[in-house]
Amino acid sequence: MVLSEKMWVGIGLAGQFFFTMRFVVQWIATERSRRSVIPESFWYFSIFGSLILLVYSLYRKDPVFILGQAFGTTVYVRNLFFIHKEKKDVANAES
Q: b/e per residue, 1-20, with b = 16+ CB within 10 A?
């Protein structure tokens, strides 16, 4: 395996690491709360992981993987938009 190919495998593995970490933080938060919880960091790990995996899938020219990661990234960003909007609305209501 040539160096550039090893680099791309490393990029793919980094993306998969971030994508996996979102489940780890969700699992820990749920265990601590004793109820299903999706912490804000879940969405950040989702975005970082899916963007890295999107770059990797573009390199691999895999249309199925590309479409899946592009769509997922949109959903993750939208969830963060609502989280930050809600925080802003609460802060404004408390003022």
A: eeeeeeebeeebebbeebbe
**For residues 27 and 60, what is the distance between their CA atoms, to the nearest angstrom?**
31
Question: Are 25 and 41 a contacting pair, CB within 8 Å?
Answer: yes
Q: What does the pLDDT average to over 70-74? A: 88
Average pLDDT value over all residues in the chain: 90
Kindly report the pTM of this predicted structure: 0.79
Nearest one of 42, 47, 67, 48 to 57, comparing CA atoms: 67
Q: What is the pLDDT of residues 27-54, one digit of tens each?
A: 999 999 998 889 999 999 999 999 999 9
Q: How many CB atoms lie within 10 A of CB 46?
A: 24
How big is the CA angle at 86 (ends 84 and 91), to the nearest 5 degrees?
A: 95
Q: Are 49 and 16 in contact (CB under 8 A)?
A: yes
